[in-house]
C-alpha cells in the first residue's frame, strides 16, 4: 500500500485501531498498529487519551513503545504526565531502550525525584550514560548528541569495519558515517558507508578515510552546529570533548528540529511573544504568553505620553499637528523593525560578525538616509496636493526623514550592542524597538513643531 | 588534520592558495585546494573575484568545478555573471556534470538565450533531463528533486541490489535509500542500505522492502515536502507523477535549505521587507527592498490622518487626548502582531487547518478579552495615580480594551481569510496589520472621546 501525504489523509484507520483495543484483540491490533510508521503510531497514541493508552501498554512491549515515544510531538511539560500513566518499571524499561538523546530530553523534563525513580531501575551502564548526557547544558552540542554511533580503529580493514557495522546497525542512530579513532579514542577521520561498499575488503581504513573531519565541541551552541549542517550538507557530525576524544554524534534529523525551533524563536521575539503557541492552548495560557510584553510596553507608552505632555501647549495651539502623530511614529516603527530583522537574522546566521559590524552600521545609516529622503518627498507631495499646506508638509517630511534615520540606526545598532554583551539579540524584540522609536520620532516631530510654532499658528 | 568550526577559524590558507594561483603553480594549488571540503572551496572561489577565478578555470576541470558550483552561496541573480566568466563550452560541460537539481536551479536563473547556448552543447540525454525538470513550477517537489537516485526492480535479490548500488554510488545523490519499482517503474517500496547490508545475499527485495512508502507528488508544494521530513525524519523522499511512476527523489540537505528559506521568508514578511538582505548588499539595493512597504504604509497613514481630521474639533478642545494616541495605537499594533504571528506560523506548520479555524478564532477572541481587560486595568491605575484623572483613565482604558480585542481578531482572522483565498498568509505582513489596527484603535479612541466630550472639557 502506498501512502500519500499530500492529500492530507490520515495514514491509518483510527476507528479500527480503537475498536481492536476496546475488544482486547491483541493480535490484530499489533498487526495493524506495528505496521505503521512510528510517526503515525505516535499521532494515534497522542490522540486517544489516557484511558485507551492504558490498554496500549498491555498490548505493546516497552521496546515497541520506545519508538513511539521518540516520535511524540508533545510539549516538553507533558512528558511527566505521559510517564505517570505507566507503571514505573515499564516506563524505566522503555526509557532505557530509547535513543539516548531522546531519553535524556524526556528525563530532563522530570522533577528530580521522579527521574531518580526511573534511574534506580536501570542497569548501571545505562545510568552512567544518562548521567553524562544530563550534565551538558541545554542548547549545546552535548545536550542534543547521541552516544549511539559507530566508531572503528584507524588500523582496521574495510572487512572488519563492515562487520562492525552489521553488528551495530540495529542500535546505531546512523550507520552511514563511521567515525575513525586512534587507540586513545581520539577522532582522526571519517569514512562513509558509500566509500566502504565500493572499496576492496582488505583495504586499511586509514588509507581511504577522510582525515579532514569537521566536528563540533561538546560545549558548542546548537545554533553553531546547525550552521555546520547548513554549510556542509552532512548527515551526521561528530562531537568531541576537550581532549579531542569522540563522545557522540549529532544526526541531521535532530538538527532539522533545531533549525525549525531557532527560526520560530526569532520570529516569536520579533512579534513580542514568549513562544508561538498552537491552537489547542487555552486563552488564559495564550494571554499569559502575550501579556508580559504588552504590559512592559504600556509603561513605555506612558513615558511617551508624559514626554509629549511637555509639548501640550504646542498641541493645544495647533491641533492639526496631532493628526500626523500616528503617521510619523508608524513609519519610524516600521523602518526600525526592518533594520532590526536584518540585524537579528544576520547575527543568527553568522553573516554579521565582529569584523563587519561597522560596515553594517554604515550601510544602515546610508539606507536610512535614502529611505528617509524618499519617504519625506512622498509625504511633502501628498500633504501639499491634498491639504494645500507646504509648511506642514515640510515639517512632517523633515520629522519623518529624521525619524527613519534614527530608527534604522537604532534597529541595527541595538541588537549588535546586545549581542556584544553576550545576550541573544532576538530579545530586542520588535515591539520594544518600535516603542523606543515611537518616543524618539514624536520628540523629533513635536520639537521641530515647537521651533516653527510662529509659522504654524 | 582536524578542523574545528567552532573557533570561527578559516578552514584554509587563503593567501597561500592565492599565491599558488598567481605563481602558476598548478600542481601544488590542486593538491591544497582539492583536499578542501567543497563548501570551503566555494567560499574561497566566491572571495577571490573574477580575475583570479579565470586562473582557477585553467587549473581545474569542469568536473572539479561542478562540485564547487553546487556549494556556492551566492544570490540567484549572480549565477549569470559567474557563468559569463567562463568559456561557454567549459560552462556547458560543468553544468552537465553537476547534480541535476543544482544545475536546473542555475539554468532557471539565466535568460533564455544564454540558457540555450549551454543546452546546445550538451548531449541529448542530459538536455532532455534538464527540460523535464525546468518544466516544473518553482517551489514544487518537481523543482527541487533530483533524478539521480537508485531504483531496483522488486523481483531482484539483495546481491544484485548491492551491485547496482556499487555501480551507481559515484553518481547517485544518496545510496542510503533504494527505491523499489515494478516493471512499469511504478513505486512499490523502499529499502535502506542499512537493511540491505544485514540481509543475506539471496533474499528477494520484495520480501524485505517496506511497502508503506511515504512519497510526495511531483506537483506538491515544497513546504509540504519539508513537513514530511520534519515529521518522519527521513533522509530522502521519493517523488512520483500522476501515474505513480517514480520520477525523482528529494534529499534532506535540499530540505534544510527549504526550511531555512521558508522560515526566513515568514520572518521578512512579518518585518515588512521583501527579503532579509545581508551586510554586503549596497544601501540602494537595501533601500529598494524596504521602500515598497514603507510607502504603501505612508499612504495608509495619510488615511489615518484624514480620518482623525473628523475629530479635529475634539482634539482642539481637549489637547491632552493627543498624548495617549501613541500609547493606544502602539498597544493595539503590538497585540495584533502577536495574534498575526501565531496565525501565520500555525498555518505554515499545518497546525491550523480547515477544521480548527473556528476554534482558533474563538480562542483569539477570548485571549483578546483577557489581555484587553488586564491592560485596561493597568492603564486606568497608572493614569489615576499618575495624572489623578479617573475620567481620562476610564476613556483610555476602554479604548485600549476595545482596540486589543479588535486587533487580536484582525491579526488572526485576516491571515486565515487570505489563506482561504489561496494566497500565502505571510503577505499580510506585520506593518500592514499594524497600520490597519492603528486606524481602528484611533477611531475607537477619538469616537469614545467625542461622545464623552461634555465630561472631558
From TrEMBL, chains A, B:
CDD domains: CBS_pair_Mg_transporter. The keyword Magnesium applies. PROSITE patterns: CBS (PS51371). It is a multi-pass membrane protein. The chain crosses the membrane at residues 291-308, 365-386, 392-418, 430-453. Signal peptide: none annotated. It is found in: Cell membrane; Membrane. One of its GO terms (cellular component) is plasma membrane. This is Magnesium transporter MgtE. It comes from Ureibacillus massiliensis 4400831 = CIP 108448 = CCUG 49529. The lineage of its organism: Bacteria, Bacillati, Bacillota, Bacilli, Bacillales.
Amino acid at each position: 500500500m502506498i501512502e500519500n501525504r499530500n492529500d492530507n489523509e490520515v495514514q491509518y484507520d483510527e476507528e479500527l485501531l480503537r475498536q481492536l483495543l476496546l475488544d482486547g484483540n491483541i493480535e490484530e491490533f499489533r498487526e495493524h498498529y506495528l505496521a505503521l510508521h512510528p510517526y503515525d503510531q505516535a499521532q494515534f497514541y497522542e490522540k486517544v487519551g489516557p484511558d485507551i493508552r492504558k490498554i496500549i501498554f498491555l498490548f505493546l512491549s516497552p521496546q515497541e513503545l520506545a519508538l513511539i515515544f521518540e516520535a511524540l510531538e508533545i510539549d516538553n511539560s507533558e512528558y511527566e504526565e505521559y510517564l505517570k500513566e505507566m507503571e514505573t518499571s515499564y516506563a524505566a524499561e522503555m526509557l532505557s531502550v530509547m535513543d539516548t538523546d531522546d531519553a535524556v530530553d524526556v528525563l530532563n523534563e522530570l522533577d528530580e525525584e521522579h527521574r531518580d525513580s526511573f534511574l534506580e531501575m536501570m542497569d548501571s551502564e545505562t545510568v552512567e550514560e544518562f548521567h553524562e548526557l544530563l550534565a551538558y547544558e541545554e542548547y549545546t552540542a552535548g545536550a542534543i548528541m547521541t552516544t549511539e554511533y559507530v566508531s572503528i580503529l584507524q588500523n582496521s580493514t574495510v572487512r572488519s569495519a563492515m562487520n562492525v557495522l552489521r553488528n551495530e546497525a540495529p542500535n546505531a542512530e546512523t550507520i552511514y558515517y563511521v567515525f575513525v579513532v586512534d587507540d586513545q579514542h581520539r577522532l582522526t577521520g571519517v569514512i562513509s558507508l558509500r566509500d566502504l561498499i565500493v572499496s576492496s575488503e582488505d583495504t586499511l581504513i586509514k588509507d581511504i578515510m577522510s582525515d579532514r573531519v569537521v566536528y563540533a565541541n561538546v560545549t558548542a551552541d546548537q545554533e553553531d552546529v546547525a550552521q555546520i549542517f547548513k554549510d556542509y550538507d552532512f548527515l551526521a557530525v561528530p562531537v568531541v570533548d576537550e581532549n579531542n576524544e569522540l563522545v557522540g554524534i549529532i544526526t541531521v534529523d535532530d538538527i532539522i528540529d533545531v533549525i525549525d525551533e531557532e527560526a520560530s524563536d526569532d520570529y516569536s521575539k520579533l512579534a513580542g511573544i514568549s513562544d508561538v503557541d498552537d491552537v489547542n492552548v487555552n486563552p488564559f495560557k495564550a494571554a499569559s504568553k502575550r501579556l508580559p510584553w504588552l504590559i512592559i510596553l504600556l509603561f513605555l507608552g506612558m513615558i511617551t505620553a508624559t514626554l509629549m505632555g511637555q509639548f501640550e501647549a504646542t498641541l493645544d495651539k495647533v491641533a492639526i499637528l496631532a493628526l500626523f502623530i500616528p503617521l510619523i511614529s508608524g513609519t519610524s516603527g516600521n523602518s526600525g523593525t526592518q533594520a532590526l530583522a536584518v540585524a537579528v537574522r544576520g547575527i543568527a546566521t553568522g553573516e554579521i560578525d565582529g569584523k563587519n559590524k561597522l560596515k553594517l552600521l554604515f550601510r544602515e545609516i546610508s539606507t536610512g538616509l535614502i529611505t528617509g529622503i524618499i519617504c519625506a518627498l512622498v509625504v511633502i507631495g501628498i500633504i501639499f496636493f491634498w491639504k494645500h499646506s507646504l509648511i506642514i508638509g515640510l515639517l512632517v517630511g523633515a520629522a519623518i526623514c529624521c525619524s527613519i534615520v534614527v530608527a534604522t540606526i537604532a534597529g541595527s545598532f541595538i541588537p549588535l550592542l546586545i549581542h556584544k554583551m553576550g545576550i541573544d539579540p532576538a530579545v530586542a524584540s520588535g515591539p520594544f524597538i518600535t516603542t523606543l522609536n515611537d518616543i524618539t520620532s514624536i520628540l523629533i516631530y513635536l520639537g521641530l513643531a515647537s521651533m516653527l510654532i510662529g509659522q504654524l499658528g
